[in-house]
């Protein structure tokens, strides 16, 4: 059966079945890493999508969250986590906490996650979810992520979930030698390119992975 022939998960009665289909969709869209799939099976996206759109939590689609932001499409979360090649001993910086969903997945894959957002409300709500899930290895901060998090640098991995025109210099310099950063780059309102940057001792290597669409990386702190 093709994806198109299947009923949308929110039209089904059984939440177990909806979550099973969610995992099958992830696989069919290229998320094949066993650790990433296991983490996505464990973290219930429904927790991070509240209100009006809750019944669409297992659809492979981005959804609105407070402060005019979005929770990313699950298959993109999976593909980005996979491209980051996170190891169990890694320290990861995420820029753009949003709902906290991506950070929760990373928390199961590595030793420690630092996640920052420019909106205080989003950080507070995400922290409540981390606590409810017993995820004690995530530190969330209200900060302008385009400057990175100098006090905790350098990082093994950096994941940016908002689009900049170019990789921000502070993030490049806060990556360890041998470290990997995955980020969308391009004009904020157009299609962007997902880039993987690997830092070598003699410079940076850039790989273009696929087209994506993210909300823009905005400098400075938000009003709420
Ligand atoms: N990773 C999130 C989705 C993030 S949406 C999730 O799993 O739900 C992008 C987020 O980036 C938004 O919450 C937005 O507030 C944040 N953002 C945009 N510019 C930023 C900046 N300069 N510093 C920190 N966060 C920023």
Overview of the structural elements:
- The protein is an alpha/beta fold.
- It has 6 helices and 9 strands; from the N terminus they run H-H-E-E-H-E-H-E-H-E-E-H-E-E-E.
- The protein has helices at 15-28, 34-42, 74-83, 101-109, 120-132, 169-173, and strands at residues 63-65, 69-71, 91-95, 112-117, 138-142, 155-160, 175-185, 192-200, 203-212.
- Strands 5-4-3-6-7-8-9 form a 7-stranded mixed β-sheet. Strands 1-2 form a two-stranded antiparallel sheet.
- The longest helix has 14 residues, at 15-28.
- It is globular and about 55 Å long.
- The model has no long low-confidence stretch (mean pLDDT 92).
- The site of S-adenosyl-L-homocysteine has 24 residues, from strand 2, helix 4 and strand 4.
- S-adenosyl-L-homocysteine binds next to strand 2, helix 4 and strand 4.
- It is an enzyme of class 2 (transferase).
- Catalyzes the methyl esterification of L-isoaspartyl residues in peptides and proteins that result from spontaneous decomposition of normal L-aspartyl and L-asparaginyl residues. It plays a role in the repair and/or degradation of damaged proteins.
Question: Features of this protein?
Answer:
two-stranded antiparallel ribbon, Rossmann fold, alpha/beta, binds S-adenosyl-L-homocysteine, protein-L-isoaspartate (D-aspartate) O-methyltransferase activity, seven-stranded mixed beta sheet, Protein-L-isoaspartate O-methyltransferase, PCMT, 224 residues, single chain, cytoplasm, S-adenosyl-L-methionine
């Amino acid at each position: 059966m093709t994806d198109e022939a299947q009923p949308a998960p929110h039209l089904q009665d059984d939440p177990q079945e909806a979550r099973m289909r969610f995992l099958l969709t992830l696989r069919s869209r290229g998320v094949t890493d066993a650790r990433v799939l296991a983490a996505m099976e464990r973290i219930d996206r429904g927790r991070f999508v509240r209100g009006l759109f809750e019944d669409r939590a297992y659809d492979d689609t981005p959804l609105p969250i407070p402060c005019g932001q979005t929770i990313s499409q699950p298959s993109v979360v999976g593909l980005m986590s996979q491209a980051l090649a996170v190891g169990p001993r890694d320290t990861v910086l995420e820029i753009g906490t949003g709902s906290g969903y991506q950070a929760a997945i990373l928390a199961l894959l590595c030793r420690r996650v630092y996640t920052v957002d420019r909106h205080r409300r989003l950080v507070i709500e995400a922290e409540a979810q981390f606590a409810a899930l017993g995820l004690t290895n995530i530190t969330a901060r209200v900060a302008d992520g385009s400057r990175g998090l100098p006090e905790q640098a350098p990082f093994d991995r950096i994941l940016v979930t908002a689009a900049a025109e170019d990789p921000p210099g502070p993030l490049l310099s806060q990556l360890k030698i041998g470290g990997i950063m995955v980020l969308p780059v391009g004009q904020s309102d157009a299609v962007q390119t997902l880039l993987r940057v690997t830092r070598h001792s003699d410079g940076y290597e850039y790989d273009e992975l696929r087209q994506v669409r993210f909300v823009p990386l905005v400098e400075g702190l938000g009003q709420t």
